[in-house]
Every structure is written in C-alpha cells, then in structure tokens.
Amino acid sequence: MSTEKPNVIVFMTDQQRASTVFGDGPTRAITPNLDRFREGAVAFTNGYAPSPHCCPSRASFFSGVYPSEHGVWNNVNVTNALSRGPRSDTPFWSQDFLDAGYSLGISGKWHVSNSEPPASYGWKELQSKKYVRDDGGSLEEQRASARERELDVLRTMPQSPDPGLRGKGEIIRPGWPAYHLYGSEEDPFGDSSIVNAGIEFIQTTGDEPWFLYVGTLGPHDPYIPPQQFIDLYDLDSIELPASFHDPMTDKPNLYRRTRDRFDQLTVKEHQEALLHYLAFCSYEDHLFGRLLEALERSGKAENTIVAYLSDHGDYTAEHGLWGKGLPAFSPAYEIPVILRDPRPQQDGRPTVATSPITLVDIGPTLMEICGVESARERSGLDLSGIVRGTHDPHTPRDVFFQTNGNETYGIQRAVISGKWKLVVNLFDFDELYNIHQDPDELTNLLAIEETGREVGRPPLANVPHEYVPIVHELYEKIWRFAIDHDDEVVNEYILTALATFGPIPQLVVNPS
C-alpha cells in the first residue's frame, strides 16, 4: 500500500434515514450515484447517530465523543439552548489532521457552536451556512440575543389561517405560523452552491493531502426538492410504513402529542410528503454524483477516501411522525454510512458490514486509515480494519444513544443490545422492544396499563415480572456507559432519580 497520505471527502446530508439507501422497502429512494459508489465501497448497514438532533450529532462526528462528553445537547443557536457550543477540552480531530499536514476545507452546514466558526478549529470556510452568531458575552447574554432574534422573526410571520382554509401539506398551528411540510424549490436550501464550493476546492488543491467536508441541508424538512426529482416517483406506488397506523397507546404521551399535529394531514398528504422526502434524497444523490464526477476529473480519485453519511434520520411517517425528536424510534437514529478507500486492500474486503457504526467512530476510523496520530483520547472506535478487510465485518456491538430532548426537554437514554432495545424516559414510563420480532417497534413491553392507583406496592410493580432480569441487565449497561462517558444523570434525589434501577452497583464495580 502506498505510503502517500490519502485525501478525504466526507459528504454529510441532513436528516436522511438509512433505509433510503439500503434495502428495498417503502422508504427506499432512487439513488443511482450511490448505487454505483457502493460497488467499490463498504456499506455499514447498521449506522447510527448518537443523538436524534443536528448539533449534538454533528459535534460527536467532528470530535469522536458523545454528547455527555462534548456538552452539546440541543441546537446551539435557539433561545432555550442548554449550551451554546462544545466544552473547551473537546478533542476535535481537525487539529490532528492539521498537525499531520492536511489542508482542511468545509462547505455548508457546521452547526456545532453558536459563537465559534469552523475556522476556529482549523477549517477553511468555503461556503458556510450562517448558524454561527456573534452574540458574545455569557450564556445568558447569548440567550437574550437569541430570544430577541426569534421574537423579531415571529413578529413578521403571518398567523396560521382558519382551519377551513388549510392548504395541501399545510399544518395549522393557532397563534403560530402555518407549517408547510412539503413543496418544491429549484435550489432547496442552496445545496447546489455548497457542492459547487466543494468542487472548486477539489480543483484548486495542490500536492499536500487535503480533507474536504461537504454538509448539505437536504433532505431536512420541509421537503422541497426540485420538480425534476419529484417527477421520478409515482404517487400510486408510494406505500406508507407498516407502523403508520400505530395508535401509540403503549408509548409515552409526549409521543402522541408530537404526532397529533401531523394528524391534520390526510393519508394522501402523508404519501405526498413521503414522495417529496424520497425525491429530496434523490436530489442529494444527484449532488453527490456531481462531486464524484469532479473528483474523477481532477485525477485524484485513486488516492481519495470518500464517505457518505448523514447527521441523523427521519421518521418518514413511521408511527405517523415526521422529522426527529424525543420519540425514540429507530428511523430517527439510523443513518447511511458508506466508506470507500480506492487504494489496494486485503483480499476479501467486504462490500457490506453489519457491525454497528456510529458518527462517534467516523473520525477515529478516518484517522487510522490516513495514518494520522493523536495523543488525545476519544470514545469512538477505530473500525478501519473492516474497511481494509482485516476484521470481521459482522461483529455485534451494543449501541448507546443520548438526548435531553431537542428543545422540548426530556432526559432520555437508550441502548440496543442484541435483540433488545431499552429506552429510559425520565419524563414518562420506559420502553422495551424485541427488535428481532418487532422491528417496527409497535409493542412496548413495558407499557403501563392505567387501572387506578394502588398504594403499598413493591418497588418494581410497573415492570412485568418476566422482563425484570432483561430490564435490569440493560439498565446496568446504560449506567456503565453513563459513568464511563461523563454523563451527569446521577442525581439521587427522589424527585429526579426516576430511573427504575440506579447506578450504585456500577459505581461499586468501577469506583473511578
């Protein structure tokens, strides 16, 4: 293998669920460029975001650590943000690539800090989306600035029309502006200019190794792809997911409240929304194809690692929901992850890897592939052996998730371990799914049936007897992960420590 350091391109979409690229279900998009790209790449079909939200997941991608470690829990530029950016000791891997002699270019969505642009971390900003605000001052001063900004926006927006005048794909919100879930624009979110800037970077790089990050804003809602990509799909062939009619009576009430607004839409409008979402994914595939063509024309393709991924997924009508948020259903967490190293590899390199991979792992994996060293510790795993064909691509692994609830706050932690998925909700009852038998997460095995209040109950009365050992074991995994990754959900006060099982046994095992 050549000792020349390879170049790197990361193409990250926004809010693209994995099933748009993998499989042949109702949420599979038309993606000819990705299909060709996969022929020489490794497709990680169990890719996950550590959090179902833009900023926490992006901060994890750029650093290789979890939200509890970098401190970004929500979108950093909104009024009620818990944090405005990552902690000062967050180990962003961009510095390690700089130290190794790489030039770094970023085009598009950053969305990691409210006050520090990518340039603060060594990136040359090619074309940036202005999520960075120069609010300055303390956290409270930044909140005040954000509040005034949001109020100014609301003052200029018309209120929702009378419900009888609701338009197609429109959601009426009394006292708020109407929300249009889907539509069409010829250059949605300016994604074409983001890619154009990336192409120009490829064309103008010199002999030194380089790293290009392209962060588009599609297919994030509202789903507004160009008409030519909408025309690729036939509405009569659009099928809603099997979970669409789930009443969610066995799920936390917040899930149903989140869905209620989407119930204004007819079944046909849900189908149209799904069509527009898939068309948006096809548009992103088109943009990715343009970038690959430019790379080929540059003559640098044979020494350039290329990764395609997204920051998190989208419910896409699963359980009647759209977007992402506290409902902890898998489509919000599952993302496409495809890595291509065109250089000679070991015989038997896989084309498909079922070993789980998260955004936290991407940086450490790319660093190892590129021979970039670092003295800083990270939580992400180096999975370069799978890309090279030297490690088993089907090794199982527990996967952990953290969120404090977008901006509708609610502490939630989750783990997938084998066939079990446990969701710990400190704002409502927990969820347990057998995802092998129930991949659509239709039956919560921990649902609490309201039969009236009963006093003098034993401590685990809300957990069905047959599931107590399973829940206990999964809680132990979650607490062990929380302790190892600086999670702060350890307040033992009786009105805040609402978890079914606590962390003390794990602290005894691991006092550090």
Q: What are the salient characteristics of this protein?
A:
9-stranded mixed β-sheet, Alkaline Phosphatase, subunit A, 2 domains, 15 strands, 512 residues, alpha/beta, 13 helices
How is this structure best described in words?
The chain has 2 domains: 7-139 and 179-388, Alkaline Phosphatase, subunit A, CATH 3.40.720.10; 418-509, no CATH class. 28% of the residues lie in helices and 14% in strands. The chain has helices at residues 32-38, 54-63, 67-70, 94-99, 139-155, 191-204, 227-230, 253-260, 267-298, 359-370, 384-388, 468-484, 504-509; strands at residues 7-13, 42-48, 103-108, 124-128, 170-171, 179-180, 210-215, 304-310, 334-340, 352-353, 357-358, 399-403, 412-417, 420-425, 431-434. The strands form 3 sheets. Strands 1, 2, 3, 4, 7, 8, 9, 10 and 11 form a 9-stranded mixed sheet that branches. Strand 14 and strand 15 (431-434) form a beta hairpin. It is globular and about 75 Å long. The relative contact order is 0.17.
Short description:
With 512 residues, the protein is an alpha/beta fold. The protein has helices at 32-38, 54-63, 67-70, 94-99, 139-155, 191-204, 227-230, 253-260, 267-298, 359-370, 384-388, 468-484, 504-509; strands at 7-13, 42-48, 103-108, 124-128, 170-171, 179-180, 210-215, 304-310, 334-340, 352-353, 357-358, 399-403, 412-417, 420-425, 431-434.
